[in-house]
Design brief:
Low-confidence stretches: none
Helix content: over 70%
Mean pLDDT: 79
Distance between the termini: 7 Å
Shape: globular
Strand content: under 5%
């Protein structure tokens, strides 16, 4: 119980700090988003409405920063993330609702593939260390050392221009009706293949290397030696004894990766013009869109905290020592 209360207190403090930083950082940036909005509409907005816009966006100059801060907390607790500057008058929640599924679908699936495939390869390489299997590491390390935006550009040049097998930009074919229909699903898969391949190849080496090193360490433990001496099947010893304990550090990394799935791969989405949350964040920064930036940062913060909580829960089930400490 003490362990649970301690973790809840820690995450509550972290959430407060993240929201506070989220409030102040955009306001320290240069530029006036309201004036930018007025200039973009080129005289279509009356000058009499300027003060109303400042109030609407929580930037009332007649209101102290402290009052704006408490007003911001009140909006969050009521689920109101404000109105987007760049997509005025669309609410921030609608922008996030539109962009988030694209990022979760692409980056989430690609991350899970990279973790599962990388961990399995790492188990096999670590168990058969010193054999030809170790030659896989330099190949995967090469792909991870290449900047993933350059890798994405290479894939576009090869498979979208030279050999037009896959589309090089967008999330789906324009004009298709979005929904659970076959044409739209096929189009989404085709448009997401190259970005997903870029993410998998760029990140799989870290999972392979981490799992391989842990397998090498665990394989020399006494309980593994005893299991082998009992004549247990090699596959049972490898997965049931060695891999089960070697996977623990991967769980934390996987939880953090899932948390950051929401933020997407910003540069990757820009390279492929993919309509995800990272692309929306880039446009928000360029347009000094405080509410949209804050809304996206808040969603990212919540996703990371939830992922860490889930990692703590999984740890309790996987490692009995954690339950004893709790």
């Amino acid at each position: 119980m003490k362990f649970l209360l301690r973790r809840i207190g820690f995450y509550a403090l972290t959430f407060w700090a993240a929201v506070t930083i989220n409030f102040f950082i955009p306001r320290l940036m240069k530029g006036d988003p309201v004036q930018s909005l007025i200039n973009r509409y080129q005289g279509q907005i009356s000058t009499d409405a300027v003060h109303s816009l400042y109030v609407l966006f929580g930037l009332d100059k007649n209101q102290s920063l402290w009052d704006q801060y408490w007003q911001y907390w009140g909006q969050i607790l009521h689920g109101d993330l404000g109105t987007s500057f760049t997509l005025f008058p669309t609410p921030v929640s609608e922008v996030i609702k539109t962009s988030l599924p694209w990022t979760i679908g692409l980056v989430g699936i690609a991350t899970i593939i990279a973790v599962v495939l990388g961990s399995l390869i790492g188990v096999l390489i670590g168990w058969r260390r010193g054999t030809w299997a170790d030659s896989v590491l330099p190949v995967t390390t090469f792909f991870s050392s290449v900047p993933y935006f350059w890798l994405g550009l290479l894939f576009i040049a090869l498979f979208a221009v030279t050999w037009p097998i896959f589309p090089g930009s967008g999330g789906a074919t324009p004009g298709l009706e979005q929904g659970w229909n076959w044409d739209f699903i096929v189009s989404v898969v085709q448009h997401g293949f190259l970005p997903a391949l870029t993410i998998v190849l760029s990140s799989i080496a870290g999972w392979i290397l981490g799992m391989r090193n842990m397998m090498v360490t665990v394989a020399s433990e006494d309980y593994v030696t005893v299991a082998q001496a009992k004549g247990l099947p090699e596959r049972l010893v490898m997965f049931g004894y060695a891999a089960r304990n070697a996977i623990l550090p991967q769980v934390s990394g996987f939880a953090l990766s899932l948390g950051f799935v929401v933020s997407g791969s910003l540069v990757m989405e820009l390279v492929f013009s993919y309509p995800g949350i990272g692309y929306a964040l880039f446009n928000a920064i360029g347009g000094h869109d405080y509410p949209l930036m804050q809304g996206i940062f808040l969603v990212i913060t919540l996703s990371v905290l939830v992922a860490n909580i889930l990692a703590d829960v999984v740890y309790v089930f996987l490692d009995p020592r954690t339950r004893q400490e709790a």
